[in-house]
Amino acid sequence: MSTTPDMIGFAPLFALSSNIWDQLSDAAGLVIALLFILAGGLIGFVLRWLIGRWQADSTEKSALMKAEAIKAEIESLRKEAEVTAKAEVVRAREEFEASIASRRADQEQAEARLAAREESLDRKTRLLDAREAVLKSKADEAEKAMDEAERRTLEADRKLQDLAKMTHQDARREVLKRANAALREDAESMSRRIQEAAKEQGEDIARSIIADAIGRCAVSHLNESTISTVSVPNAEMKGRIVGRDGRNVRSFEAETGVNLLLDDAPDSVVVSAIDPVRREVAKRALEALVADGRIHPSAIEDAVRAAREEVAKSNSKAAEAAAVEAGVVGLSGQVLSLMGALKYRTSFSQNVLRHSVEVALLTGAMASELGLDAAKGRRIGFLHDIGKAITSEKKGVHALLGAEFLKVNGEDQQVCDAVAAHHGEAETNGGVYGVLCAAADAISSARPGARQETLGDYMQRLEDFERIAKKHDGVVSVMAVQAGRDLRVVVDPERIPDIEASELAREICREISATRKFPGQIRVTVIRETRCVEYAR
Length: 537
Fold this sequence. Notes:
Layout (H helix, E strand, L loop, with lengths): L4 H4 L2 H154 L3 H49 L10 E5 L3 H8 L4 H10 L2 E7 L2 E5 L3 H17 L4 H30 L6 H8 L5 E2 L2 E2 H18 L4 H10 L14 H11 L4 H9 L10 H14 L9 H16 L4 E7 L4 E6 L6 H18 L7 E5 L10
Parallel strand pairs: 7-8
Antiparallel strand pairs: 1-3, 2-3, 4-5, 6-7
Helix pairs in contact: 3-9, 5-7, 6-7, 7-8, 7-9, 9-10, 9-13, 10-12, 10-13, 11-12, 12-13
């Protein structure tokens, strides 16, 4: 902008007024701004109120219009429903009237049928009345005939009693007596047939089970002995064994509990002892001393100690091997150690440890055939003679001693009971397992060569059987045949009827079984025969 000369004179005044104006302008602008803000807020509030009022009026008008539309629709639906309801009422009334007419027609037909049935029943009633009159007449005639028959029966009965000289009660008793006798004979015959059939069937089953069990296992037999022989190289060695003034022999016998026999043969020494374990320890110790050549009391103690340890280890190994062979597991160390002692024990020409294995296999096989626990059967059979390893140290019956030892060592109570009862010294609390163990023990002991019975014992056994049979009334003679396995009893037919013959056989069997002095079984045959003798001339 250009500056003119007229304006130059007013420059200071203009500058001053300009500053004042600027200051006034700043204050006024602030007031004006505040006024504009207040005016804008007021205008905004008024506008917002006006807009809200307009929206509310618009919403109210819309709601009124919708309400009017809904009311018109409801009125239309009401009128339509009234029309439909009237139509349904008309239709239902027509259907009801049709149903009433149909039922009325059915009722009229039913009434007609009932009338016809009533008429038919009336006719039948008249016929029944007529038949009833006829039957009543016949019943009267039948009653008269029954009275006549009863009179004639009584008259015939009186005549029969006069002829037979016996009353009704006597005749009834006689008939019952004869009927009882006939029924008793029939019952005895039937019982005998049933027993024979059951016995044959049971024997076949038992024979099959036992044969199968025996066929699965077999052990060898040997002669029972109480001595062992140790070879020596020369007489000088015998002198060393004797020692100065016999001190070595005395020391050896005191340490081992055996007897040494030095005079039987020049090249051997005999070790004698009832206890087979002691005898084996002494034999091994003496063999070690002979092999070493230095024999004196100190060396004898060392040799005997080493032999005991060696025998103990050997026994445990033998018992473990036998348990594996018998299929028995879970035995404690004490039980295995004692079972191993049976390795050197013999009973009636049987090695007891081998015999225990066989009895275990037999008992397990029979238990399996009968559906029982075969493992428990094998365990009972394997441990049944463990008490024989104690009898040399403790007095008593080996079955009871063995059961007591097994109970102390944590064996099952059923196993202990069966072991205690396998020879009959205790009740058969072991149940079927005890019976099976006893049977397996008898089977093993009855093998050829297992039991060597002397002639005197054999004859005594036969005499006992004959004595048991002869003490019964009516027995004429007794014969033991088939090596005592078959006992034939001849009875007097006049004193022993057929009915009592089978009872006599069972009684003799029970008495023989009570002796428990025989392996296997004894068959008792009662022979009753009647001989009629006539002479032709």
